[in-house]
Amino acid sequence: MNERNSLSRRILVTLGVIVLFRLGQSLPTPQSVRPPLSDHSWRWILDLLTGGRLATVFGFGVLPCLVAPFVLRALIVLIPRLAALRAEGEAGARVLTRYRRRLVVVLGLLGAVGLVVSGAQDVLDGAVTVACLTAGTAVVLRLTELITDRGFGHGVRILLLAQVLAVLPPEFLRLYERTGWAAVVVMAVVTLSITVITIVVAQGQRRVPVQYAKRMIGRRAFGGTPSYIPLRFPQANSPAVLAAALLWVLPFGLGDPWWIAVYFVLVCLFAFVRAAVAQDMDKVAGELVRVGGFVPGIRPGNWTAEYLDYVNRRIIAFGAFSLGVVALLPVAGLALLRVTPATLFVAGVTLQVVLVFLVSVSLDTTRQIESLRRQRRYQPFLR
């Protein structure tokens, strides 16, 4: 009963915060706000990040919460004091968390000032708009923390998911009005294919067996139990975004077959390099030596590192190819619908990022729910 109540409470908190968040995105500001972008393709990306309603109290949505961690990381690299705080452990992490919260509000303030200046409002109306949008940013920050602490999933990701689901249906409806049932069929195939491939790659793992040496402490033997090292391909949307940005700068014809082929190759290359750099097999092999573990049939030390690196590179090669296919599917689908090249470039990349994000958020939330259920189930045996 306690388990059921706890799960129900977390679900209700998450749903309640989402409803409050969407209500805030429907509450207009006292003064009108003019969107800064007129191009439909780039306006769609802005709508996905802000919920499509800039002229509301929660007009910026979770955009400041998304940008603040990246800005803080850059500041940590540039400011030695912040780098020292990160090295202080838990106490430093608490201070950095406070700085991140303040940075979110500052970004909301700067964004509000930018909107007021671009909209050419007078001083009084501009001050009201800045105050509403800044206060709304602070409230959204608190709502994300409320979901993270008392609900399910990561608060920023959950509210961003709510924004995306609110913006996507009208865009699909416009596409249907232009192309008919072909849009429904193509988008259904693209969505299903991306979902299946993303889940298979995210859930798949290569388990490298590990054996630990037995140790005698007094009359008892410890260790000797078999285990494994799970090797996975890290999911990320950054390779597709980086490849698209590079092709935007280079002199390629957007939407032609050569552009699509180069885009696929660049996504695979960037995904492989990112995964290879992110995973240090030398560190894993050194940790195995420290705790007395070894891979059966492989000598400890450098030999183990080389073996793990060999296995890991095969995994990330398959994962990089899969990510390239995932990036190619929405572009190819929109090309079949004869979308204009500029829209194909922006919408194809954005659609891939959005779909992968939706699947990853769903998987993370499902894992958290399952973890909580297991914890509640076995809690009586741990007392």
Please summarize the sheet with the most strands.
3 strands, antiparallel
* Portion in beta strands: 5-15%
For the record, give the distance between the C-alpha atoms at the N and C termini, rounded to a whole number: 18 Å
**Contiguous helical run count:** 13
Shape from CA axes? Answer: globular
Return the string of H and E elements: HHHHHHHHEEEEHHHEHH
How would you write the strand order of the largest sheet? 4-1-5
> Which parts are unreliable, with pLDDT below 50 for 5 consecutive residues or more?
none
Overall mean pLDDT: 79
**Any idea what the radius of gyration is?**
24 Å
Computed structural class: mainly alpha
Task: Name its key features.
383 residues, mainly alpha, 3-stranded antiparallel sheet, two-stranded antiparallel ribbon, 5 strands, 73% helix
How is this structure best described in words?
The structure is a single chain. With 383 residues, this protein is mainly alpha-helical. Helices cover 73% and strands 5% of the residues. It is built from 13 helices and 5 strands. The strands form 2 sheets. Strands 4-1-5 form a 3-stranded antiparallel β-sheet. A hairpin with a 2-residue loop joins β2 (215-217) and β3. It starts with a helix and ends in a 5-residue tail after the last helix. The model has no long low-confidence stretch (mean pLDDT 79).
